Amino acid sequence: FSDYDDKQFLICPDLKGSLFVLNKKLEFYANLGGGQKLLTYSEITEENPFLARWLPLYNQCVNLDFKGGVRSNILQTVDLHLGVRYRHVDEDMFYGTLTENVTSEGRVVLLNNRFVPIFAETNTVSVLGDMRWLILDNLTADLNLAYNHCKPSNLAHPLYRPAFEGKLKVKYGFNEKLAFNASVLYQNGRYGMEESDVFVLNLYDFNSVVKLNDVIDIAIGADYKINDQMAVFAKIDNLANCKYQLFYNYPVTGIQLFAGLKMTF
């Protein structure tokens, strides 16, 4: 699926710099890098556990990775970060749906629930914004926003990558033992693929690409610390009961309740 073995030698920059002003309360930074990263099968399936077949070790080649922006804590209770990122990747990995014909009781059944890797050269520009607000001594709020413009060389859309994503997380410490938390995750601009032919991975019909529903996931939880080694927790995920799809034909379940025990040794 990948010709990464042809990339035996690669020269990439590795430069970092920062400028601090206002008594180090304002930082302007820029990083320029790149290189190769070896991804194992376990790392890939952690992102997508529905792959149709085993993959060899995958060597991702990042030709250029630029990060720049500004960080500030001028307001002592608020940390801010605004940044931009540009990445040029030789063989970025996406996931296409593998359509198979299966004969069952004399009928032909189409299966669209497994995935194959698709490799494409990509240029991605991201605009990032992060904020941490110490509202009270025991109440904090974290907000993370990102807008991503990704253009794959042989795909109409960057499959399963959101154009916009935002997450708000609030944590409240009631006392030294009991803490509450809540979070809201939102993503839009995600696309999947209805069908593809495993034998012609570079000849896709762009009409098979479908736009997926927006992701809205609300969660609340609580932690109670029994002692230094033991704590109990409870969490409710997908409180809005939003049936968005992680991958095509794989919708998430509705409201989910988790509870358990944490132990530290």
Characterization of this structure:
By secondary structure, the protein is an all-beta fold. It is globular, with a radius of gyration of 22 Å. The protein is built from one helix and 15 strands. An eleven-stranded antiparallel sheet has the order 1-2-3-4-5-6-7-8-11-12-15, covered by helices on one side. It starts with 14 loop residues before the first strand and ends with a strand.
Averaged pLDDT, please? 85
Rg (C-alpha, Å): 22 Å
Extract low-pLDDT stretches.
Answer: 1-5, 197-207
Assign the structural class, choosing from mainly alpha, mainly beta, alpha/beta, alpha+beta, or little secondary structure.
mainly beta
Shape: globular
- Taken as a percent bin, the fraction of beta residues is over 45%
What's the SSE pattern? EEHEEEEEEEEEEEEE
Strands across the major sheet, in which order? 1-2-3-4-5-6-7-8-11-12-15
Report the sheet with the most strands, covering strand number, pairing sense and barrel closure.
11 strands, antiparallel
- Tell me roughly what share of residues is in helical segments: under 10%
- Give the number of helices: 1
Separation, N- and C-terminal Cα atoms = 44 Å
DSSP strand tally: 15
